[in-house]
Structures are given as structure tokens and as C-alpha cells.
Amino acid sequence: MDGFVKIWAVFLTAFMVLVWTFIGWPQIWNSPRIPPRVNVAQAADVTIDTGDTTPIAGHNAPRALVWASSTTGYFFYIDSDNDFKYAKTIDGGQNWSAAVAEIDTDTTITALAFDVWYDKWTPGDNGTLIHIWWSQVDLDDIFYRALDTSDDSLGTMRTVFAHTAAASNRANFVSGTKSRGGNLYAVGTIDAATVCEFGRSTDGGTTWDVTRASPQEVCGDQGFLFPANLADSNDIWMLYDDISTDLLTLKTNDDSANSWSESATIVASVENTTLGTGEYPFSGSIRHSDGHLIAATHSAFDLSTTDFQIWDITNESTITQKTAITTDKDDNYYSSVFIDQNTDDIYIAYSGTRDGLQTLGTTVGIYYTKSTDGGTNWTAGDTAYSAGTGNYRQNWAGMMGNRFGVVWRNDATEALLFNYDNSVDVTPAPSNSAPVVSTVDISPAPITLTENGTTTVTITATITDDNGCGDVLNNGTTTATLYRSGIGASCSQDFNNCYVNIKMASTTCSGTSGDASGTVQIWYIAQATDASSSFSGDTWQATVKAIDAANASSTATDASPPELNTLLAIDVTGSISYGTVNPTATSTTQTVTITNTGNFNSTDSNFSGVALESFANSIVVGSQKYSTTTNEFWDYMDFTLSGTPTFRELNITKGTATGTPSAQNNYWAIQVPNGTPAGTYNGTTTIEAQ
Fold this sequence. Notes:
This protein is mainly β. The protein has four domains: 1-30; 31-425, Fucose-specific lectin (Neuraminidase), CATH 2.120.10.70; 436-557, Immunoglobulin-like; 570-689, Immunoglobulin-like (Sandwich), CATH 2.60.40. It is built from two helices and 50 strands. 44% of the residues are buried. The chain crosses the membrane at residues 7-29.
């Protein structure tokens, strides 16, 4: 029996291979790869609005998601109660507020369609306003209002177009934009595609001129407005969908001439006219680096011949087709274009995998692909954005900003969803600014040394860094070199004239500026720079160097460096004993050592003394003799001690190392006068540095 099973298994395997040979490999192995690659998302989807059985009319919004920063985003939508609202996130989309405000001042409206345009979507514009246009049934009009993202205040509601009737219809749409010159423009259709208008505002939306030439050939035609890349900064473009010919073109509004021109056909795009299904077969975003419009198009809805194509539009006459994302694939639609303006990388979000194996209207996921070379190449496979699949339709990628994130609509539940974990923070790493050192100060001034010891010198400086003072004071280093100016800041450690690598620590740090301080112990041998010194043309200077976390650095010096004073100081043997000396006799020679404990390089001394006394008896001061050079007997010594200070040239050099001071010996002896009573005689001899 076992043998029969094995033979049957071999036969079955051979049969399947033969069948595949004649009928072709299964579809899943055909395209685009074997097997198709999907980078599966692992994170949960976040609900912005739960919806209900009543369709949310946000599907006919060309643009609905705005990123003011990588963390702050606004999503606009028409809720299931037909009111026009927005939700806000301040944590990159991890959480979304409930409806923040009713954009329309009447909270019982039936909104039809809307569009938004953020100031920063216009090249060169750094404004903070989100411009909002919407239409509604109740008043049969198209309205305008602005939301200021700096404080979330809403401006005055204005009427753009006033009409007498409006009704829900697939042809209804509104689109608006802001030109590079600052004008606002709006185009729209209401009342089941029977009424359409184009208007311009030159005063920030306060008033609207609706007498200007309209781009629409019939009111059923639709399109999205964009600022044009032309010499006249108030010219605009309309990515134009002609429903009668099923052709997509680019129309240009010459603002000064109040006229429209049109390009040749970009691509054929067959309309799906079902409300909530057909919106939209195209999308686009402006690339700020060159002003080009990058457009994504689908040639039809859910046909096996549908092409998903990308276009780089310079102007009406220069429209370049880039590498298509899919060719002849169904079940892939609803694209939205996002451009990282920091790198020019293009992200395209879409519903349904590129192999066409999912099913639009039932089970598709939200995916994206990316190009880093302007659309010539796209990332392989589908990068999953949604965590799951469903009847997912329209999606909005926000056009541009510091976060690529996608909101999409679940047609089955009318929920609006977002996925934070699969969004991409595209905030550029801050460009590093080199720190700036200023206000270097040395104290005390002047510097006065301590005999045979050290003196504390304090160095302070102010550090400024546009990346924050902590970039240096917490994450970098600040050091100082204290030196005699004549040898320069690149000197090597030397206690005579150069103290290096003095560590400085933060004392204050707030915002971009802070203070640092460090101390150093200066030895008594440091070279003087005052008027009496050998270096009277110098000062003592400090160079402070600040290095930030990115290893950028700068230096500065004290604008008013101090002098270092001359220190005349000696240390003398504490006492000598002549021993027992009889009258008329002389003592043996005693040695006295004089050490230079200052920084003067040729120290001399004054010598003086007093009589030696023993109670009422004394030995005159001149009984003592001394020699500053040689060890001699009393008779041959050079000098007789006097009660008057007498200058003697010793030329004791300054020490150059703290452990080996410079010193010189003197030699002393006494002759006791005849008749001097016996006793112990004491006296003081003064040797004073000169």
C-alpha cells in the first residue's frame, strides 16, 4: 500500500507540471515577480472618524490632509451628519481629536464637496493658513474660510459663488489654490453640474471676482488647481478632466490677460460617474525645487487595460511621461501624490496591489511606492500602508510636509483611517550650526601670583549654538588655553607660559545661549608681562574653544586680556648657629641658602641686620661678615653686615620647573669682640628680595 501511495504521488506531481506547461503558470506567478512581493505592514490602523451607514461625502475632496509639521496634522471631512469638520493630531497621527470645529458657521448644513490649500504648498510661501473652499445644499453656494495653524483660529466665512440651487451629484467638485504671487483662486460645480464658476481673490479671500473667464467648457468637467511655474507669479494651472472626451489636459490661466490656454492631451482617462466611486482618476503635487507638477493618473476604473502612469509637467508644452507604476492592471485605483520637498523623493499612495490580484470594492489594502530619481524608478513590490484590507477607496497623502502619511476611506463602514506606524517622518536632520564663542573673560585682572605656590585663575565665556546651547554645553566640549600672548594659543603645556586643556563646564544654558566657566592653577614661575618684566609687550590671554556634538567648533579670546605681575620673592634658610665662640675668635663658616620663590629672572637682595643680644650685653652688627659667592674664612669674606639695608647683586635666576627651584648659597661667619661676656646671643638678619 505504501508503494502505491508513493507511485500515485509521483504521478500526481508529474501531471500538475504537465498541466502548467500547457496552460501556463498560475496568475500569481506571472507578474510582477515570482511570487509577488508585498511589504506587509505590522501596525494597527487608527480611526479618525467611525462614520455610519450614511456615506461620508469626503470622497469628492481633491485635497483633505495637511501636515503643518511632522507631528501636527489636520484632516478635513464631511461627517456622516453632513457637516463640514476637521480633526487634528499633535502626535504625528497616533491620536486624532474629535471634530474640532464646525467650519461652516451653520452647524446644520448639508455639505457637498470641498478642497483645501496650505500656504506652504505654494513654492516660496511660508504662511500658516489653510485655505478652505466648500459647497453646500442649504445655501446653494460655494464658501471660503481660512484656518490659521499658528493658533487654530478660523477667519471670517466668505461667499465665493452665490447660486439658487444645489444637489448631490458625481460632477460636483470644488478646487482652490494660492499662486506664487499670493492671489487665491477657486473653481467649482454645484447643482448637479448645471452651475459652474471660477473666481479670484486679490485680498486674501475677503472679496471674490467671479466675472473672470472660466476654464470649464461644460459644468461637468472637473480638475484641480495648482500654482503655475511661469514668469507671471499669479498664473495658475488646472489639471483638467474633460468628461465629454475622456481626456486629461493641462490648462493655464494667464492672470493678467484673464484667459485660459490648454495643452495637448496628456492621457486618456475614462470617467467613472458613480458618486463615491469614480473620484478621482488623477492627483498631483508641486515639486518646489523646480516648480514642476508631478501627476499620477489612471486611464480607467477597474479595467484589465488600466494604466497607472506618472507625469512630470513643466508647462503646457513640456509634459514628460515617467515610468508607469502599472500597465494593463485592474483593481488598482485612487492614487495620491506626496513629495518630500527636502529630497524631491516622490511617494505615490494607492488602493489595491499592483499585480491586480485584490478586488476593488471588496478587499484591497492601501499601499505606496517611492521614487528617489524623479519617477524613473520605483520601489519594487507594494509597500503596505494599511494594516488590513477592506472596501478601501479614496486616500489622501497630504501632498507635502514633514510626514508622509495617508488617510483613507472605508466605503463599507464609512470610517476614515490612518496608520501612524507605517507613516514616514521625513523631517530633515537639522543642519548643524557651528557654535559661536564670545565674551571671554579672565579673572583676576591683573593676575598676582602666590609665592612658591599656585594662584587660581578663572576663565568664563558665552557659548551660542543655533542647534541649542546643549549641543555644546551638554553634548560637546568647551576647553581653554591660558598663555602668554607672545607664544600663541598653539603652545604646549609649560608652567612658565602655557596652560592647556582647561576644562570648562556649563554654568547656565537656555535656548541657544549659555555660559561656561573653568579654573586653572597658575604656578609662581609664570612669566610676568607688566612694565618691569622682560615681556612687557605681552599679556596673558585665553583662547576658548567650543566643540559641538557634530564636531563643529569655534574659538574666541579675551578682548581685554590682563597683565601678569612680577613677583619678587625669596625664601631664606630659617636660622644659623655660630656655636661657641670665644672672645677675639672667629666662628666656622655657616651656609645660608636663598631660593627664588617668585618669577623675577635675576633676583638680588638687600642685606641688613641688628646687634646680637644676650640680656643687657650685645655684639655689634658689624661683627658678622658674609660672602655671596665663595666659602671663605671671616677674614676674607666680601661684606660686613650693616644695620642699613645694603644692595648686593645676587642674580638668582627664576626657576623654570616647579620641582626644581633656583637657589644660591651665601656664607656667614662672626668674630666675637674682646671682652664680650659669656652668654647666648641672638639677633635678626634681614635679606630682602630686590
